[in-house]
């Protein structure tokens, strides 16, 4: 069923009895041409672009739980393409362009809202660093604007401009950045992929990867053996566990990142704001909750929950930047498991096993990349050659010394 | 999460800094030329579920380095030793 204003009115008149499930509940076939492990943003987008752009035969997506229960439904929904290093800037801009056309492409309201991302700076050197990043973006055709203190005050009056320790001096703005309804991204890609014949198989956990002479043959799952001519791993957070099943290791540690939502408030913050002196980013959802987050907890974890000192630290950052939110009550907090790589950048590449491809290492920036990671991973799987904007995300860049380290902190995953 | 420091007793995790995996061993010598051994030591990790040895530093306490065995699936601290 195609969604449109007409279909909404027709169903309203019929008492909403004609809506169909958005995607088919598929049962596993004995084998597929391409199997994607992971029914999150990355896996579903990959399946969709494989079905749409490439002629690869039968495709399945295997999800261990229910669709959208992983990081795609656990993030702070921010999209932006304000990266400064070669290898990153064109990739994230492709993602932004795909976000801009996504809803028409998949016929689904993902609530893409380009409300602007404001990165606040608090010192002269930080202004210079932001100006440099903004210039890099503009040279790549990405929009960026440097605001001084008074320009920023006109748009965002409620910051603590005269904070004694971290006075607000201005902001680097990407106006095309913003937020997207995260669950709708999973549902929309799932529906669009399913309509193009992709089998989406939920409650199907992979327990082993079958190989013969170094070539992948399929997977063992909790719903039986499924053959695969090509296999793609898109399970950020658990990538090392799947790599271990296939017999190799990755330059990744799994860490927990917490996110937070306040009680519902009247419209207050109409863009995305990040604190430059600590680690804090905030936006307001359409339901009114302030959605915010900060740093990872800093230790390895597969438990999807964090500890209280990080909650305190994130809230302190928020109150330092905008004291007015200090009286809002916290409604919920939760944790997700991140693939933290050794240089803070992702991996979209071949693996050491033939016909096994890997899309991993998204640290805590995977959500904004969902369309481009799917687009480029599909390209890699179908053509057995990397897409040109993702060509730097190689697995061997660590051995080769070609790291993409935006933050410049070295091989210390908990600091990226 | 609380870590029982051998010197200070059980303290909240906010007093400690997690530094790195204690299960990897620095190659004995070399390093002038990149080798697979060094790449593995610097970058590659097992990163599996279950108990794992890690270095923690008691930065807001006695400044001791500790080798903590911790279950990364449950955050349970199983053992704390001095290196």
Tell me what the structure shows:
The complex is a heterodimer of chains A (416) and B (83). Chain A is an alpha/beta fold. Chain A folds into 2 domains: 19-78 and 84-107 and 182-251 and 343-415, FAD/NAD(P)-binding domain (3-Layer(bba) Sandwich); 113-178 and 254-340, D-Amino Acid Oxidase, subunit A, domain 2 (D-Amino Acid Oxidase, Chain A, domain 2, 2-Layer Sandwich), CATH 3.30.9. Helices cover 29% and strands 27% of the residues of chain A. Chain A is built from 10 helices and 18 strands. In chain A, the strands form 3 sheets. In chain A, strands 1, 2, 8, 9, 10, 11, 17 and 18 form an 8-stranded mixed sheet that branches. An 8-stranded mixed sheet of chain A has the order 5-6-4-13-14-15-12-16. A two-stranded antiparallel ribbon of chain A has the order 3-7. In chain A, α3 (89-106) packs across α9. With 83 residues, chain B is mainly beta. Chain B has one domain (2-81): Folate-binding superfamily (Folate-binding fold, 2-Layer Sandwich). Helices cover 8% and strands 39% of the residues of chain B. Chain B is built from 1 helix and 6 strands. The mean pLDDT of chain B is 93. Chains A and B meet through α7, β12 and β15 of A and β3 and α1 of B.
Features of this protein?
heterodimer, A: 416 residues, alpha/beta, FAD/NAD(P)-binding domain, D-Amino Acid Oxidase, Chain A, domain 2, eight-stranded mixed β-sheet, 29% helix, 27% strand, B: mainly beta, Folate-binding fold, two-stranded antiparallel ribbon, 6 strands
């Amino acid at each position: 069923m195609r969604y449109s204003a007409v279909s909404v009115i027709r169903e309203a008149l019929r008492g909403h009895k004609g809506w169909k499930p958005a995607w088919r509940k598929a049962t596993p076939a004995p084998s597929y041409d391409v199997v994607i492990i992971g029914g999150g943003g990355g896996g579903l987008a990959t399946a969709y672009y494989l079905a749409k752009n490439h002629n690869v035969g039968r495709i399945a997506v295997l999800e261990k739980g229910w669709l959208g229960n992983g990081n795609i439904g656990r993030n702070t929904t921010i999209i932006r393409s304000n990266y400064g290093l070669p290898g990153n800037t064109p990739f994230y801009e492709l993602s932004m362009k795909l976000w801009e056309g996504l809803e028409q492409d998949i016929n689904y309201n993902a609530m893409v809202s380009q409300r602007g991302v404001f990165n606040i700076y608090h010192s002269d050197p930080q202004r210079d660093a932001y100006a440099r990043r903004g210039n890099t973006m503009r040279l790549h055709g990405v929009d960026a604007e440097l605001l001084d203190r008074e320009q920023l005050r006109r748009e965002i009056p409620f910051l603590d401009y005269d904070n004694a320790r971290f006075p607000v001096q201005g902001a680097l703005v990407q106006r095309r950045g913003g937020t997207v309804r995260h669950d709708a991204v999973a549902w929309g890609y799932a529906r669009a992929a399913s309509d193009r014949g992709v089998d989406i198989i939920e409650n199907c956990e992979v327990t082993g990867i079958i190989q013969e002479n170094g070539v992948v043959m399929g997977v063992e799952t909790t719903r039986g053996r499924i053959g695969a001519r090509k296999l793609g791993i898109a399970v950020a957070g658990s990538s090392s566990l799947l790599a271990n099943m296939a017999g190799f290791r990755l330059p990744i540690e799994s860490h927990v990142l917490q996110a937070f939502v306040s009680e519902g408030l009247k419209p207050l913050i109409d863009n995305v704001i990040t604190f430059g002196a600590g680690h804090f980013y905030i936006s307001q959802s359409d339901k009114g909750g302030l959605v915010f987050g900060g740093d990872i907890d800093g230790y390895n974890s597969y438990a999807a929950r964090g500890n209280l000192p990080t909650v305190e630290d994130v809230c302190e950052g928020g109150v330092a930047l905008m004291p007015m939110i200090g009286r809002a009550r916290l409604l919920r907090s939760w944790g997700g498991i991140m693939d933290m790589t050794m240089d803070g950048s992702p991996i979209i590449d071949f693996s050491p096993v033939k016909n096994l491809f890997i899309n991993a290492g998204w640290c805590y920036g995977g959500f904004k990349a969902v369309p481009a990671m799917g687009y480029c991973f599909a390209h890699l799987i179908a053509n057995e050659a990397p897409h040109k904007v993702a060509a730097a995300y190689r697995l061997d860049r660590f051995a080769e010394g070609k790291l993409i380290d935006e933050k410049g902190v070295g091989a210390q995953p908990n600091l990226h | 999460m609380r870590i029982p420091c051998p010197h200070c007793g059980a303290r909240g995790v906010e007093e400690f800094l997690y530094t790195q995996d204690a299960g990897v061993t620095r190659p004995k010598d070399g390093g002038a030329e990149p080798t697979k051994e060094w790449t593995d030591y610097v970058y590659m990790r097992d990163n599996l579920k279950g108990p794992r040895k890690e270095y923690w530093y008691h930065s807001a306490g006695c400044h001791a380095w500790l080798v903590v065995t911790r279950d990364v699936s449950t955050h349970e601290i199983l053992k704390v030793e001095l290196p």
